[in-house]
Amino acid sequence: MAEKVITRFAPSPTGYLHVGGARTALFAWLWAKKDGGEFRLRIEDTDRKRLVEDAEDQIKESLEWLGLDWHDTVLRQSERIDEYRKQAKRLVEAGFARESAEKEGTVIRFKWPEPLRPVAIEPFQGRQKIMVDPQTVASAFEEFVLIKSDGYPTYNFAHIIDDLETGVTDVIRGDEFTSSLHKYYAIYQALGRADALPRFYHVPPILGSDKAKLSKRHGAQDVLDYRAEGYLPEALANFIALIGWNPGDDREFFASLDELREAFDLSKVQRSPGVFDPEKLAWLNGEHIKALAPGDLLERAATGGFWEPGRDRAYDERVLGLATDRVRTLAELRDIRTGYFYEAPKVAVDRLVGKENPETVGVWLERVLRDLTKLPEAEWKSDRIERTLNDVRDELDLEPKQLFPVLRIVVTDADRTPPLWDVFEVLGKSETVSRLEAAQDLVA
Ligand code: GLU
Q1: Residue 214 Cα to ligand 1 middle (Å)
Q2: One fold for both 80-203 and 349-443?
């Protein structure tokens, strides 16, 4: 039986979860869940000076929102200090570490076994082996700190104790850790656990379009900011997965984490940095919105505070149905849910007639009403309404830009709306007719 894959995401709560961290978490989640493995969450809060108070909550909420659920309880390093000290003491006793009295206090440092030997490292995807040779890079063999003077462990030490404890088989993280891999190898050996060495997948960073390190300047945000702006979690996950990874063909739309999981393969992660493209995110978000059933969309827009439930659900769904093809975020739905769908506008007569004279507009309205009222209720459909209005327009010998803007103002009092016939269909026959009749009175 193949061994179960166990991955973890191990953020430091020194800031909120952003696109880069979310990608590491997503890759680790997808990789574990591919074959029924486990994805774990660990909070690496040993750098006490840099803690941000609500970062842990924000990180967890971000992961939950994205659907990246973790196995078991969260492991918090600050609660395991005794364990790290115990393990460090063991290394001291075994001669692999030493206590050292220093300016800020006593620390425990790793002691390389003598004589120093080159270490060969095999990270990620069959990249070339890296040789770290003390002859050429002596600094790589410094006696690095395991336990700091404040009693807390360093990242270099604690993460290994925890990965061992939780049986992590695959470590997915940024490639800035590659230059320390030989230290980690040495600790596993010193602990007598070389057998439990995980596979290391070090992922290249994400850059902005100008090839600089990704930052807010490139439009990259914290995960929950995307939620606030009306992005769907599955769209953000879809987008993030494609930064530096592709399924090997040109498929870009993945409806769900499940679809991503099936296609995902760490061996297809690019070796060069991924590039962040906010335009692509907006496009993908639009595609995900289109793919939602109207009821779902309504629910999610309402939950996110982007839609205030109106008259009744079925009607709301129809209004919303007009929007799905043209919005790219849920926030844009606020523009669609304009008042005219729910209440007849009070149109000023000047605005209504514009450059025409009231009598002429009166004639237009009369003809429009004459033919629209003939349409049976069951045929009150966008295409029939469009045909009817165009027939009237031909009969009156008018250009679309003469007749339709007037009708738009009459019924909505808005300058821009979805296609007029779509709006008429959603409003329904009697409401549309009653608004047209009210305008007739206004110009009489
Ligand atoms: N706390 C480390 C970080 O946030 C974790 C690195 C790792 O995954 O091992 O970068």
Answers
A1: 17
A2: no
Q: Which of 7, 16, 18, 44 to mutate to test the pocket of ligand 1 (most atoms within 8 A of CB)?
A: 44
Query: What's the whole-model pTM score?
Result: 0.91
Q: Where are the domains of the chain?
A: 6-76+206-275, 80-203, 294-333, 349-443
Q: Which residue has the higher pLDDT, 415 or 141?
A: 141
Which residues are designated catalytic?
216
pLDDT band at 160, cuts 50/70/90? very high
Q: Please state, in angstroms and rounded to a whole number, the distance separating the CA atoms of residues 108 and 98.
A: 6
pLDDT-derived band of residue 127, with 50, 70 and 90 as boundaries?
Answer: low
374 Cα to the center of ligand 1, angstroms: 69
**Bridging pattern class, strands 145-147 and 105-110:** antiparallel
Average pLDDT in the chain: 94
Q: State yes or no: pLDDT of 308 exceeds 90.
A: no
CA nearest 273: which of 44, 26, 37, 23?
Answer: 23
Query: Does residue 391 register a pLDDT over 80?
Result: yes
Instruction: Find tokens 């493209």 and name the residue.
Output: 277
Fold of 6-76+206-275: Rossmann fold (3.40.50)
Atom of ligand 1 nearest to the CA of 44: 1
Q: Ligand 1 test: best mutation among 7, 155, 200, most atoms within 8 Å of CB?
A: 155
Contacts of 435 (CB under 8 A, 6+ apart): 344, 345, 410, 411, 427
| Any ligand 1 atom below 6 A from CB of 408 | no
> What is the position in ligand 1's atom list of the atom closest to the CA of 24?
8
173 lines ligand 1 (CB under 6 A): yes
The reply to whether ligand 1 has any atom less than 6 angstroms from the CB of 154 is: no
With pLDDT > 70 as the criterion, what percentage of the chain qualifies? 98
Query: Strand, coil or helix: what is 208?
Result: coil
Q: Is the CB of 87 under 6 A from ligand 1?
A: no
Evaluate if residue 425 carries a pLDDT over 80: yes
Q: For ligand 1, atom 5, which residue shows the shortest CA distance?
A: 10
Strands (E), 356-406: none
Question: What is the atom index within ligand 1 of the atom nearest the CA of 8?
Answer: 8
Ligand 1 centroid to Cα of residue 204, in Å, is: 14
The answer to whether the CB of 15 falls within 8 A of the CB of 223 is no
Give the pLDDT of residue 125: 53
Say which CATH architecture domain 349-443 belongs to: Orthogonal Bundle (1.10)
d(CA 56, CA 59): 5
Protein residue whose Cα sits closest to atom 3 of ligand 1:
11
The predicted pLDDT at position 120 comes to 86
Please report the pLDDT score of residue 435 as a whole number: 98
Pick the CATH number of 80-203 from 3.20.20.140, 3.20.20.240, 3.40.50.620, 3.40.640.10: 3.40.50.620
**What pLDDT, on a 0 to 100 scale, did the predictor assign at position 339?**
84
